[in-house]
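The authors assume throughout that readers already know how a fold can be written as discrete tokens. The format is easy to grasp once an entry is in front of the reader. For illustration, here is how one protein appears when written out as sequence plus structure tokens:
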Amino acid sequence: MNYIRYLFLAFTLLSIIYSVSIYMVGSGTFSFLIWIFNAIVFGFIFYVSGNGRWMKIPFGIRCAGYLTIGFTAIFFSICFIAMTSHFNDKGEEGLDYIIVLGAQMKSGRPSPIYRYRLDAAYDYLIKNQDTICIVSGGKGKNETVSEGDGGKEYLVSRGIEPERIIAETKARDTVENILFSKELMDQSTKDDTLRIGIVTNNFHVFRGIHLAKDYTENEVCGIAAYTVPWYLPNNMVRECFGIGRDLRKMIW
């Protein structure tokens, strides 16, 4: 069983290395702490599993540990399966609206993760000339411009007509992205047969479309944007917490 024990040591070292790489990105979030926590947990398991230390721990605590690990593994596994089921969503042709969910603006320009979303929207808009795009996102404390305005400026700079793009500039999270975008659509039409696409990075599509279904009776589909593979584990783990938080609001 020693090889299993040393597997936890490997996980500990990998978590530390990965946390440093996430910290170096400078995304403005503290998600690197997730991997520091993972390193502590894996390191603890490595330690207590040696020299019979685990069996010296009271039986009730050991059972609680097994249950915690089991439920955590099940929850994250279900979330990962749900996310990956929408990794290749391409939307449908001829949608009435697409909603680009905002992400961080850095130095007045879209961050890489946001740019991937906008690029996916650009590709769709080029192929579907009658579709209107809503770019949603407010201005955070570390941003010089709102995500909605910054996203619109980016799409216009790539050649999309300004009149096809609506900037939503108040939303602070995914729920508000969808809710405030719906309000903008309602100002234009009361049609409840619209076809709407949710544009976001692949790991985020699942939560985006299932939240959207809670706020509208319209048909909703996803349009998945690229994510750099190295950062995908970090984004997927963070997204699990988002799914857990928003689970009651999501329509299945």
About this structure: The chain has two domains: 2-84, 97-228. Residues 59-84 form the longest helix (26 residues). The chain has a mean pLDDT of 93.
